[in-house]
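Subject: mismatched residue count in predicted assembly?

I count 992 residues in my input, but I want to confirm that the predicted structure covers every chain. Input:
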Amino acid sequence: MQVTINHHVYEFKQPQTILTACASIGIEIPTLCYEKSLGAIASCRVCVVKVVGRRGLVTACNTPIADGMQIITNDAEVTAARKTVLELLLSDHRLECTSCARVDDCRLKRFATQYGADKNTFAPSRPLPPIDKNQKHIVRDNAKCIRCGRCVKVCCDVQGLGVLGTLGRGFDGEIGCAFGESLDTTKCIACGQCVAHCPTGALVENSNLPLLMEKLADPNIHCVVATAPSVRVTLGEGFGLPSGTNVQGKMVAALRRVGFDRVFDLDFAADLTIMQEGHELLERLQSGKNLPQFTSCCPGWVNYVEQCHPELIPNLSTAKSPMGMFGAIVKSYYAKKAGIDPKQIYTVMLMPCIAKCDEITRDAIRDVDMVITSRTAIRFFKQQGVNLAALPDEEFDNPLSLSSGAGLIFGTSGGVCEAAMRNIKDQLPRSIKGIVVSGIANAEKLIQQIKAGQVHYDFIEVMACPGGCVNGGGQPSDRGLIQDNLGNARKRAATIKSMDKYNSLHKASDNPAIQQLYQEFLGSPESPLAQKLLHTRFHSRSK
Amino acid sequence: MNFGNGKYEAWQKIQTEKITPDAVITMVEQSGLRGRGGAGFPTGKKWRLMAAVTGNQKFVVCNGDEGDPGAFMDRAIMEQYPHTILEAMCIAGYAVGAHQGVIYVRAEYPDAVTALQTAITQARANGILGKNFDIDIRLGAGAYVCGEETALMNSVMGKRGEPHPRPPYPTESGLYGKPTMINNVETLANIPNIILHGPANFPNTKIFAVSGAVQKCGLVEVPIGTTIRDLVENYCGGAKPGHVIKAVQIGGPSGGCVPAHLFDTPLDYDSLKQVGAILGSGGLIVLDETTCMVDFAKFFVQFSASESCGKCTPCRIGTKKMQAILERLTKGQGTPADLIQLRTLGEQIMATSLCGLGQSSPNPILSALNHFQDEFQAHLQGICPAGACFHGYHITDKCVGCGLCAKKCPVGAIHGELKQRHQIDPAVCVKCGLCAKNCPVHAITGGNH
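Triage response: the counts match. Full output below for your records.
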């Protein structure tokens, strides 16, 4: 079909929206509420364009192109309308960009700057609402909220939780939980997708950087950090590198530059998890009990089971998450080997996830002292003057770093299932059926199908975030003009898969560091020590 | 068949004369009936579009969420002629191939709800409803925006009453994702007559809810095309004694005002649009010289701001900023820049808002600004010609500086040099009016002076 855009005629073959059609020919249209996987919400109205023959302006995000359509994206009227919309949003905004955690990738700041929007065009209509710092993991500042509705949509539609919604009406309405309750009292699973989808600084994770700096500066404390599989393909985005760039070596160098005494690879612990979890699956297949076995490495998913499906707790793998296992091993095996008092070791995890911040509040995971998200790490490096992109590649420290490709692919949806199968496929007593699901709404659908007896599986991998940890709630958001977190995550996942391909160690049991750990310390997966250190129990927290 | 006040003659005519759905739609098309809810979409065209949609389940919805201030046409119909609505919905369902109807009524109309409920029970008992077609009632919970059709459908489904962007249109994906057709109460009330007496005999009348500065207020049903003057002077008795009518406001918070010199404008969809008003749902407020147009505009923008659902930026924040400007003007704190911003912002809200409510909410303000520019300008000088604003008094340049007002003022709010124009400090003034009463040259305005 032929479409005239800014007086030039273009030919489009695919039916699509004005937004994507314009993007494909290099015409930029700003968007705040639009995120590709969420679809058009059409609430922010900053993407307005003129369509000849239509009354008023139309939103590019949800208006399909049509043959013969004449579109104007950049005349004085359109530009002024966009500027006004941005100025309206700024008028009652807590404009504290310099101290805002999201200053680097704030979409409001990006387009307000582009359009020269002035905060003072309209006088504020109310005192700024207070910042809610009382929730365990997530800080909400409604004075920075632009009411785009993304957090609500991802919570309700993608995660099926419906924890967030709009309270009240009109100008005085705000986003929050029903009856103004704290997130902590709801069935929020701390997946953090609301934070990852927030285009401004209205939702951020609690900052633990002051405490981290204190620990790093203390000469009596041995600070170790372990990096989750997925963060090595996301940190670069904060330093201008393309999506999915592998910055493993630079990340290690950066963590050393900010003062960590040891930098370990959590992929090692992922291998360990697969050893235990695979062994557990074999046992269950033999006994026929507690099948299907669900993975339990995703703390968002575990929260969901404990809160909404406690009847499935026996089906969860009792193996601790890689993070939980790592904490236990650091303060036992590593402490002994390195000759350090475990009390002097401070264990930090660099994770793609806000639910991991929640996981360390569990009794069984108390060996881990702190979780920082990849978003927070990017800020921290910048504060410390560490330009990750310019650093040389460095190697992880030993002994807790050598890993197989199977440990690495934990970072993307399907990886845990694949890693388990690599390890145990030769020992299976019968042919089994496994399935991989990500996104809680999808998981819920699967649970209902299983309960209705429509489907049968033996092994089920669940990741709370769509696409797995590469799209985790603690990861930097896509910086593309048309924001597409899931598409961005696919690029990250592709890098992980190619890194796996080039790893000579294919499966966890081939990993000599893992073999050494069992020989020197744990014995076998079923040994009492392995069971004590590497397994946990879950409890109903039905809400 | 006759029960309650329902005769269902048109419905029976369709059945006995075996009029096809297509022929029913043709009759509605030929009648020229247009939607009475505000937008004025041709009803026959809407039905034709809906009939063409394939789908095993379709809904017809009656929009009884009459929310415009001062409008109560639909209420009267629902309370007094509920069977007419049911009959029209049966016909609509038959014509477009729907088997389920929903009447959405605002909960503030309990008598209408009871009347409709009783009528539904009677219609079911008499075999009109319940076989091929049935009707349920859903109550609104007080949000004005739920009269907007996409928000209405969300409300019916138990969701937050917020509009969603179109496409998809209700006829593609409406209630529960099924094709849905929504007609206003008054629109539907016309249907049985069109069928019964033929489209050629359709009188094409519209009910107006007239209120304000006329001798006779109330519901007036007149043929579309009647002039405003005819309605105001002949049907409603003209101005109250001693007063002069200066404008009418038509169409509620989405409509606009028409000044007296344009009263020969016919009350029809297109003529009113040309003068900056809309036929709308039929609320008509008559204004005389005691109403300040700036204050009146402020009332409507307050209504729109407080009824905005808050989903889209321009309506949520823009109406709030327009309200602030009008508040400044009515306090005498406005500047010429405010008037420019009021107009620009109003036009941008109309161009960029998500739903019809936001797109039309600046109408009353912009039309008042267009037709009564002088009143807005006067407010910049601290003068309210209608004496409604500033809650206080203002000394004009007629002042000779005698100082009598300052002497009489009980709170010492008036200052000035002898033989110079005096000034009133509004922060101190208690609006007692003694100054104006005692001024020998009538230089003080405000209150009733």
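Chain B touches chain A through 32 residues (CB under 8 Å). Marking this ticket as 'not a bug'.
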